[in-house]
């Protein structure tokens, strides 16, 4: 991981926008509610509790040398050893036996809702307080063991960890101090863990005067999944200085720790350089961790001793790949900068399951000296370049922007850095969470902005590699019942992974997930020209999505342009198919003249003719006025698509026999849409003649299957004679 992050740390274009550097032991608070608990000098030693706003809590950090023991913020061990639902059910058993009996036969989920609802109805403050106190005073072996464990944690947090932090702040010898922090530490020195624990219970229990208050503070009283995070402070603080629970106080603590680290590194400076050319000092310490968006805590690692190959030469860990403190801090700071929430869709974005992709531009140092000063801007705003969004699925999850439009925005922003795109390199790496403790680099590449420009142009052309009547698509508008026609957008690389990994049922009515296509395959397809790779993707894609493509074509024959919750699949999948064909050198000018594509259009025409027959022969005039057509569930052409894949040459003959009744009717049709009937007959004759001149293959490969389904979806574009025929023909060809 360090090899992927260090280049960002060394990039001069990023260094001036680095995030605040934090000491490795000063860690963010857990997500969720954080309560400020004010410590008093007299019993009950707690004289204030308030919920800290989320934006304020994000500025606070806790000093944590070892997991679970931190200061001045820490996870408070609940006062009771039992769970919330068991406590509530016990209260009901004492004061509402009917509700308690009714809850016994329910499963855990229903029981939890029922008990909480019953407690809300029967809540009585005096009874609840009495029951709470009796539970706290319970004298059992289990309760005693839990209490001892809780007191041990509190002792390590407010005594040991607080003392260690105080010694480090004192050793840093900062010119400015914070008397409020010192006052908090002095009060905690005089309080025993048991006094603090009892004081917290007394104060929290006094706050519970309603069911709503119980729901708010129950995390401090009973065990729950969310737990309770508190941050210590004092109520009577000196107004001339910031309170302890303030971002500026946390920064003051951080500056003391960083200053102390620098002093110690100078004193302990070892001879030699680490693997990255920086001083070797600090290479034997534990690697720092970084909070990386949705991945959570990620520990920077070099070579780990768990890999047996490291012991081949008798060395492991830092001995085989030494990384000093300066390199570690630089890597940590670079990753924290790239992973900031404000840069989502810019420098990072979600790629796969528990996987993040990072992308950022840097200037190629070998070219910097050759450019004029006015030809480039070495420092730039990462927030203006949505690189990560371009390589995933857009800047934000809700954004349905077009890839081509976003690529133009990225290229324009990069052109503002340097007029020579070849002097800008884009670095990409992806981190994937293996389990709670381990994270691996799942992907890494780099390329010039000039290469990106060329690849983006080719990608956009590929997504437009469709017959003209498939280039536009109808979908729901903003108003209920409104249908609008839009240009089919170019897809994002991640959408190949998202949409192609659905195995559709034979009727196209639903899908199940697949993992054959990897999260980075779309990015590989964008950046590289690998025919074998593209062919493999096409084989998987057409196998997975053929039923949906067939359904899209049949709905078009029936005049149903929007397919419920599959609308986005209907928009994206044809573009993926067109792109893969383009990557294999099959452009629409060529494949639309292939016999297999024409076979697909022949099947589409057969469906149109059958549907037209059903509309005027099998459907009453009253139903036609309601736009109801008495047609089979599956039309004849659609039913023969699967057979066309394996018995291609026999398909035309079988189709001719099956549509003979409709063909005969169309010849004699004298109804209001007879012009459309004659036009269909003519098109059937023309395509059949063309197929006689161009022999069909015996079976179809991935490319031929794609041509078949594209031909079926596209149908035949053309105009019949007469106004009604134009309208109906438009419906059939969509």
From TrEMBL:
Protein name, entry field: Type I-C CRISPR-associated protein Cas8c/Csd1
């Amino acid at each position: 991981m360090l090899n992927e992050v260090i280049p960002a740390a060394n990039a001069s274009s990023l260094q001036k926008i680095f995030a605040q550097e934090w000491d490795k032991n000063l860690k963010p608070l857990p997500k969720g509610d954080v309560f400020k608990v004010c410590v008093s000098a007299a019993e009950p030693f707690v004289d204030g509790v308030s919920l800290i706003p989320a934006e304020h809590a994000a500025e606070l950090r806790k000093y944590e040398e070892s997991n679970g023991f931190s200061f001045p913020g820490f996870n408070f061990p609940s006062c009771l050893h039992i769970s919330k639902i068991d406590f509530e059910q016990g209260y009901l058993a004492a004061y509402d036996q009917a509700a308690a009996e009714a809850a016994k036969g329910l499963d855990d989920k229903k029981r939890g809702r029922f008990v909480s609802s019953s407690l809300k109805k029967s809540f009585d403050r005096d009874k609840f307080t009495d029951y709470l106190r009796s539970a706290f005073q319970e004298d059992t072996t289990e309760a005693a063991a839990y209490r001892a464990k809780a007191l041990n944690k509190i002792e390590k947090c407010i005594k040991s960890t607080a003392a260690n932090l105080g010694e480090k702040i004192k050793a840093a010898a900062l010119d400015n101090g914070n008397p409020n922090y010192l006052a908090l530490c002095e009060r905690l020195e005089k309080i025993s863990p048991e006094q603090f624990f009892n004081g917290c219970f007394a104060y929290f229990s006094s706050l519970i005067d309603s069911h709503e208050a119980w729901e708010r503070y129950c995390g401090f009283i009973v065990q729950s999944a969310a737990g309770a995070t508190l941050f210590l402070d004092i109520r009577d603080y000196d107004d001339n200085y910031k309170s302890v629970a303030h971002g500026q106080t946390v920064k003051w603590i951080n500056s003391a720790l960083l200053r102390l680290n620098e002093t110690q590194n100078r004193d302990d400076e070892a001879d030699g350089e680490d693997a990255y050319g920086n001083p070797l000092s600090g290479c034997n310490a534990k690697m720092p961790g970084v909070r990386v968006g949705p991945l959570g805590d990620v520990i920077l690692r070099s070579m780990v001793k768990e890999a047996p190959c490291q012991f081949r030469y008798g060395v492991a860990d830092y001995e085989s790949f030494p990384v000093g403190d300066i390199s570690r801090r630089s890597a940590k700071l670079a990753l924290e900068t790239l992973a900031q929430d404000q840069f989502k869709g810019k420098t990072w974005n979600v790629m796969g399951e528990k996987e993040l992709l990072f992308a950022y531009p840097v200037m190629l140092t070998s070219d910097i000296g050759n450019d004029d000063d006015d030809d480039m801007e070495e420092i730039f705003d990462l927030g203006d370049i949505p690189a990560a969004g371009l390589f995933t699925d857009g800047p934000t999850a809700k954004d349905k922007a077009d890839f081509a439009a976003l690529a133009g925005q990225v290229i324009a922003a990069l052109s503002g850095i340097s007029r020579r795109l070849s002097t800008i390199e884009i670095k990409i790496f992806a981190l994937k969470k293996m389990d709670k403790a381990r994270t691996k680099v799942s992907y890494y590449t780099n390329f010039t902005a000039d290469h990106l420009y060329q690849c983006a142009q080719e990608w956009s052309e590929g997504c437009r590699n469709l017959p003209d009547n498939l280039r536009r698509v109808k979908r729901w508008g903003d108003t209920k019942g409104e249908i609008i026609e839009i240009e089919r957008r170019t897809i994002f690389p991640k959408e190949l992974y998202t949409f192609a990994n659905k195995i559709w049922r034979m009727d196209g009515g639903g899908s199940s997930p697949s993992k054959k296509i990897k999260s980075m395959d779309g990015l590989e397809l964008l950046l590289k020209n690998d025919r074998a790779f593209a062919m493999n993707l096409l084989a998987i894609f057409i196998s997975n999505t053929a039923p949906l493509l067939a359904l899209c074509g049949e709905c078009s024959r029936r005049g149903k342009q929007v397919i419920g919750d599959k609308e986005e699949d209907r928009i994206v999948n044809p573009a993926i198919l067109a792109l893969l064909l383009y990557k294999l050198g099959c452009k629409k000018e060529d494949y639309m003249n292939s016999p297999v594509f024409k076979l697909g259009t022949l099947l589409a025409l057969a469906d149109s003719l059958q549907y037209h027959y059903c509309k005027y022969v099998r459907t009453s005039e009253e139903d036609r006025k309601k736009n109801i057509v008495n047609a089979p569930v599956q039309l004849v052409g659609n039913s023969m698509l699967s057979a066309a894949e394996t018995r291609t040459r026999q398909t035309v003959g079988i189709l001719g026999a099956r549509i003979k009744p409709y063909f005969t009717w169309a010849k004699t049709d004298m109804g209001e849409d007879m012009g459309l009937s004659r036009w269909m007959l003519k098109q059937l004759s023309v395509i059949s003649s063309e197929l006689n001149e161009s022999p069909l293959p015996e079976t179809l490969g991935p490319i031929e299957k794609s041509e078949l389904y594209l031909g079926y979806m596209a149908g035949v574009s053309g105009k019949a004679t007469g106004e009604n025929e134009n309208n109906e023909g438009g419906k059939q060809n969509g």
